[in-house]
Amino acid sequence: MQSKDDGAQNRPPAAGESSFPTPGGQASRKPNLIFISIDDLNDWIEPLGGHPSAVTPSLTQLANIGAVCMAAQVAAPACSPSRTATLLGISPHRSGVYFNSQHWNESPLADNDTLIGYLRKSGYTTYGCGKVFHRWAARLRQSDWDQYYLPDGYMASIKDRNSIISKLAQKRFEKSGRESEEDFGPSSSGENGDKEVTDWAVERLQDPAWKGGGQVLAMGLYRPHLPMVVNQGYFDLYPDEVPLPPGFYPNSTRWRDNRRDLDDLPPTALTLGSKRPGNDLDETGEYQSFLRSYLASISFADFQIGRILEQYDRLGLAENTYIVLWSDHGWQLGEKLKFRKFTLWERALRVPLFFAGPGIQPETRITQPVSLLSVYPTICDLLGLPVPAHCDGVSLAPRLLGRSNGDDLPPVVSFWGNEELDSSFKCYMSVRTADWRLIDYGDDEVELYDHHNDRYEWHNLAPRVGRQTGRSRASARLRAAIKALQGVLPKTSATSLRPSEIQQTIRNLRSYLPTTLAPPAQRTQPQSDELDSDD
Q1: pLDDT tens digits for 288-299?
Q2: Are 394 and 409 in contact (CB under 8 A)?
Q3: Strand 321-327 to 353-356 pairing
Q4: What is the overall mean pLDDT for the chain?
Q5: What pLDDT was estimated at residue 191?
Q6: How far are the Cα atoms of 59, 180, 276, 494, 528 from residue 175, in angstroms, in the given order?
Q7: Diameter of the chain by CA atoms?
Q8: If we measure between CA atoms, which residue out of 383, 401, 327, 357 comes closest to residue 119?
Q9: Per residue in 155-205, pLDDT tens?
């Protein structure tokens, strides 16, 4: 904590000045940064408790030496808009990048510095490898990087598995004549791309320049993204039958039983996300294999992280090096009959977010929801740099460094839509507080979840509020929701709530979401030049 007579620390920073000094006051030596992104990793890791069988000792080690955001949320449930928001520091509703078919450098606001570009302009040496930005090499701003490494044949290597493994992928091949990305199972190949990326990152850390400070290493891992193909040893960590996802509706014994969780959902919610590959997994009887493959792929990624942590310890980097680790979105495995991401529920929005390094107390836990928009300003503050004016997020540095309890963190707003870029574009929004999630699809379609009592979002309170049975309970819950959500964005004047006013109250809750949305950024290159649309 700050001392009361530390006037320089207690006054607000001047324009262009950082709120925080460099760690330990070592102004002569810049801190270093290791920045790790992971594709398609949900909360199925030991520190977040998302699945009881998860084996992730390296992430547990990182959690023990630093801080974990227990309810981190992405700005959008897809790779491109999430990575754009995180790395550019701008919310989708301002950048116009809402969907995977768009790219960060197509935004009208793309002239602003990316996080990596800003660090390089500030005198840092920046190295990158693997998948950091969406579509990686084709979408990099070369001036952001001193050096960027992709193994030869990277895309082929991360999708290679010697031969088709699953019955599902074989069925797809027989039908289309093409190998499907939706393959899974053990193989001696398929993991080579991430291993080579980690090899290169480990080699970079041997550079003596890290002792002098001012080094940035950004590493992106592709697994557990499909195809979920890793070495047999990672499958051996798990029994043949692993527990079903904890988010399955109570008493479900297979993923299709989750249809009982759909009765209270509005029509638009049912159209989002995908049942693929669920139906095919039923036909081939491979759901358990698919589930086990996702967990094995997570353990593979965890092992690569462990290789970085080993060097972090062995080289004595902890005293002057921050580690920031995050995932671009969650992943669904049949909850509410959905697979992959592309929805505004907790399963698609909750992700790992870790910070470790100088001044961050071991085993720190931030329980309030935080947005990945906070990553950019937090890193700036930790490194002693001014936060650029274009950043939308709130720095977590005061909480990480013990100068705030985090109670003043704003609720998190996330965005998705109908994936149209023309005049038919529709944007759907979610706001997440410590106790509530509100999802607004427009046209009187709303979901409201009480996260204090319903962490898996099984019970949408919004449809119940107009029914004769349970009106008083719903009314009380909505009053509590209004109170909890007040102050997120422009306030409404709702002061009381009678049953006859419930629908109006739901409309009032919408006013806590942004009312001005940037139009979708338009594509500047044809889709055919890109990789698979689901990346």
Answers
A1: 999 999 999 999
A2: yes
A3: antiparallel
A4: 85
A5: 86
A6: 40, 10, 16, 57, 22
A7: 74
A8: 383
A9: 777 777 777 899 999 998 888 888 888 899 999 877 889 999 999 999 999
- Measured between its terminal Cα atoms, the distance across the chain in Å is 43
Give the whole-angstrom CA distance, residue 514 versus residue 404: 27
Instruction: Supply the CATH classification number for the domain 27-410.
Output: 3.40.720.10
Q: What is the DSSP string of 439-476?
A: EEEETTEEEEEETTT-TT----SGGGGGSSTTHHHHHH
DSSP E strands in 280-435: the ranges are: 321-327, 332-333, 339-340, 353-356, 364-366, 370-371, 412-417, 427-432
Q: How many CA atoms lie within 13 A of 275 on its CB side?
A: 11
Do residues 83 and 38 touch, judged by C-beta distance below 8 A? no
Evaluate the CA torsion angle 229, 232, 238, 243 in order and state its sign.
Answer: positive
Cα(525)–Cα(523) distance, integer angstroms: 6
Residue 345 contacts residue 77 (beta carbons within 8 Å): no
How do the domains of the chain map onto residue ranges?
27-410, 426-510
How does DSSP assign 412-433, residue by residue? EEEEEE----STT--EEEEEE-
Residue 199's φ and ψ, nearest 5 degrees, are -55, -45
Is 6 buried (19+), middle (13-18) or exposed (0-12) by CB count in 10 A? Answer: exposed
Helix (H) / strand (E) element for 118: namely helix 115-121
Query: pLDDT, tens digit, for every residue of 430-469?
Result: 999 888 899 999 888 889 888 888 999 998 888 654 433 3
Q: Identify any residues that bridge with 333 across adjacent strands, giving them in sequence order.
A: 339
Closest to 158 in 3D by CA, of 304, 349, 339: 304
C-alpha triplet 351, 355, 358: angle, nearest 5° = 180
Closest listed residue to residue 189, CA positions, set 158, 222, 143, 144: 158
* H or E element that contains 127: strand 125-130
Q: Which residues of 149-181 are buried (b: 16+ CB within 10 A; e: fewer)?
A: bbbeebbebbbbbeebbbbbbbebeeeeeebbe
Among 2-16, 146-160, 275-289, 473-487, which range has the highest average pLDDT? Answer: 275-289
d(CA 298, CA 60): 13
DSSP state of 523: P
As a whole number of angstroms, the distance between CA 174 and CA 403 comes to 60
